Amino acid sequence: PPDVSGSGGRGRDPWKAATGLWRNGEVVAGGPSYGAGMPEYAVLWNGCEGEATGRLSVLADRFELTSGERRVVVRFADLVDVTIGRKQADRLRGLPVLWLRHRDGRALRLASLQGPGILHELSRLVAREPG
User: Fold this and answer.
1) Cβ-based burial of 114 (10 A; exposed 0-12, middle 13-18, buried ≥19)
2) If you ran DSSP here, which 8-state letter would residue 88 be given?
3) pLDDT for 95-129, tens place per residue?
4) Strands of 4-104, DSSP E
5) How far apart are CA 2 and CA 16, in angstroms?
6) How far is it, in rounded angstroms, from Cα 109 to Cα 103?
7) Which residue in 5, 42, 38 sits closest to 20, CA to CA?
8) Is the per-residue pLDDT at 36 higher than 80?
9) Higher-confidence position of 33 and 8
10) Taking the complete model, does pTM exceed 0.85, yes or no?
11) pLDDT exceeds cutoff 70 at 67
12) Taking a C-beta distance cutoff of 8 angstroms, is the pair 64, 72 a contact?
């Protein structure tokens, strides 16, 4: 039968979202790029400036969210509460969220476009931050 995968016969499912390209044991696109510097994730977020879709970069003491020219910095030391919201009222576009509550009362909801397991990983990163 003809190859309809568009992958040159490598067996990739054309209907499944790309989750990463592997080279020498590292994820180089579409997931956390541990070997290439800071981990990055595709996310949807909603906060005081509205909703956006973009990239979350993990640094030692903060998350940086970027969407086009828009940039949001979330410093771990400024957070007073981090929880995972699974209730329908918490969700963004039907996805569970990571609630990040700032000490000044602002709140930001993050939803992973790469699967809900990412929320647990991000929550653990914030919990490990001293301060």
Assistant:
1) middle
2) T
3) 999 999 999 999 999 999 998 889 999 999 998 75
4) 22-23, 26-27, 40-47, 50-58, 62-67, 70-75, 79-85, 97-102
5) 19
6) 15
7) 42
8) no
9) 8
10) no
11) yes
12) yes
